[in-house]
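Q: What does the assembled structure look like for these inputs?
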Amino acid sequence: MNEKIAKKAVVVDGQEIILNGEKNILEVAKKANIEIPTFCYHSDLSVYGACRMCLVEVEGRGLMPACSTSPEAGMVIKTTTSRVLQARRMIVEFYLANHERDCTVCERNLNCRLQAIAASLGIDEVRFGEREEKLPRDTSTFSLVRDPNRCILCGDCVRACKEIENIGIYDFTQRGSQTKVEPAFGKKLSEVECVYCGQCSVRCPTGALVVKSEVNSAWEAVLDSDLMVVAQIAPAVRVAIGEAFGLPPGEITTGKIVAALKKIGFDRVYDTAFSADLTVIEEAEEFFRRLQKGERLPQFTSCCPSWVIYAERNYPFYLENLSSARSPQQMFGSVIKNFIYEAENTPREKIVSVSIMPCTAKKFEARRPEFIHDEIPDVDIVLTAQETIRMIKTANIDFKELDPLPFDVPLGAGSGAGVIFGVTGGVTEAVLRYAYERLTGQELKEVEFKGVRGMDSTREAEVDFGGRKVKVAIVHGLANAQKLVKDMRSGERYYDFVEVMNCPGGCIGGGGMPLEYPDYQEVLRRRAEGLYNADRLSVVRKAQDNPSIKFLYEKWLKEANSEIAEHHLHTHYYSRRRISDEMIRIQEAKSAQKVDIAVCVGTSCYLKGSYDLLQELLELTKEYGVEDRVSVGATFCLERCTEGPNIRINEEVFSGISKDNLRQIFEEAVLSKLVAETH
Amino acid sequence: MEIEKESLVLSRQFEKVNAILRKYSHNVDNLIAILQEIQSEYRYLPEEILTYVATALQVSPAHVYGVATFYAQFSLEPKGEHIIRVCDGTACHVKGSAQILKAVRENLGLREGENTTSDLMFTVETVACIGACALAPALMVDEEVYGQMDEEKVQQLVDHLLGEGEKVDAV
Ligand code: SF4
Ligand code: SF4
Ligand code: SF4
Ligand code: FES
Ligand code: FES
Ligand code: FES
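A:
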């Protein structure tokens, strides 16, 4: 301790810094303009403190990890001593030794934290050998590519998926030199419960988890003069793409993005905020109808595909509560393929619809069979912000200096309400702006609903619509959504309308956004501010005032929730299994003439007591003396969770099984077959 | 006959899994103990049973898999009742352990990629030096060491293990 230092201060590299509630040495060093390198620290995840990249020297205490050491008054901290440098070099060399090092052909080249830290330390040799084993890459999903050969076992993805999503796709497996970070049983991401949100990838410091690129197909399309390439730009990306070109997070670059896309060769550029306005109206009208009839409440938003697939797998009881309105991306896709093509006099198959999204899950959404008609998808290509940045760089565009261009007419303009869809609470606020006027018949003067804004994980508000009080809740991060749903199921909370976004902060925190380390929360705050600024700068701030929206209803849709609108702008949901096909064999029939029974022990059916049914069934086979002719197994979800518990007899699924009807079903569907076959 | 026996074992095992889960009150804090008991039931940890355990404990399958692969005591591959460890340490390697391994596998009728016989009686592994270099090539059956092996002796040994032929003396 050094008496000369002011009370409540520390010294960082000779500079005195007054402490003001900083959590760790990283934050203190930042005040001294020192950015300490880190791999496993993220401001929005728990502190893991295992990568040792952030070591600094504290007088009298030696080397300490800056991310997990709290600053104490009087500490004398040195961030660059020969011991520190030696340790950091050694650590990076260790990581590199086990890491595939062909940076020039890596998706993260020049955008990789490992590479950047190695470069800043001037690593020019790796003393500990090479990676011996080459493991297969996982390209099984539409959203992400996992390359285990580039993994440095920092555990960031493990914590991201556990803490933000509460899904826990990855974990550390094996031990010693064999240690890996991988999904259960080394499975592919398409075979586990991944919701494709990319929260893991956006925190991965290397090329081990990257966005699956569609850049090549996008180039092919824009360079083919035979095709008409139509882009839509999601709200969130306009306040983030600039980050890759030296602009601060939150700076609105909408016009520059339009200009860049035009230079690249896109024929039309539209605003997803426009179809967000459409979503507002379709979803709000749906909500009013439900309110009136008092059915299918609470209504959940459905514009986030990760949330939707999560609900399909885990909340069969809420599937009919999800809004049937398609997401803004899919609404625009549908408008392009069902309306614009005619206005443009271009055959449908010559139109390529490309969406520029913050989101890796949107790639999956675009491939849902409901959104593909006669083999023509409504959205052909989904580019994340990261891929869009790549294209702008490939085209050598000086983004920062571009003069802004407006969106194309007549369907280019979105309202401020549509723009704030990109931030948590935005959908709710946009709907409220519409609902207020629609239900009270009065003009809404103060359009900003500050009560639903902010970054708290769960927020609620009560709005008075001329006597009818409506309770809304807003939640972001699936882990938080799970807690909310639990409370709602137990009756502890009640809402009429619930907005769920998978990603922290909403889409501004999407898995396809530019990478930001390590103070992600600060970046999110600024991106959110950017979107609210964009709203404030909009001439039109309510969906219902958007002239392009009026135009589309007049020319095509007639009115909200009309038959045409239902057909082209709404959708439906299915129960889906969480786990790829697996079967526990419990009883094997030895006879060739046999009946196969599978009892579902997936989460939903399991919780409804399917295990007891299984026991019952085994008893029945004994009672009737047909054990040798009835195979019984347990399976994980027959995709009819709402109607569970379910069993499958040969190819046929029987639902709503209970102790009371099991015997009858057994006699009718199992015994009869055995009798019929023996005679 | 065979199948009937197998079927009985299967349903009894699955019942046991549920009993074990109940015994530990479906509490994930007891995961290691649960896996230990399940393994002693199945002699290994089958993938679908681990998935079932994850469902029942309401944790992610990755977590269960992570624990199951971390501890050396757990095996995710079926393990036979008897483990035959063929030494591939330097001394044995030089004296032709590869032939010995091949002979053991052939006599047990193991196919490529298979390390356990389908009746779950034998698992074949290779190990580094079992401390019997003077008797190389050597192998172990459970705790017994057999030295100076050759193809003929391997055949004799396996025959005996299968309940035929004469006993081969351990070291
Ligand atoms: S994409 Fe999302 S759900 Fe899938 S592993 Fe990553 S964080 Fe988990
Ligand atoms: S995949 Fe990436 S985030 Fe996950 S442990 Fe490996 S390096 Fe870290
Ligand atoms: S919150 Fe937005 S960015 Fe994140 S998964 Fe949902 S739609 Fe995609
Ligand atoms: S140990 Fe501090 S960043 Fe990893
Ligand atoms: S859990 Fe989905 S059908 Fe049983
Ligand atoms: S090398 Fe085989 S026993 Fe030593």
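Chain A is about 35% helix and 15% strand.
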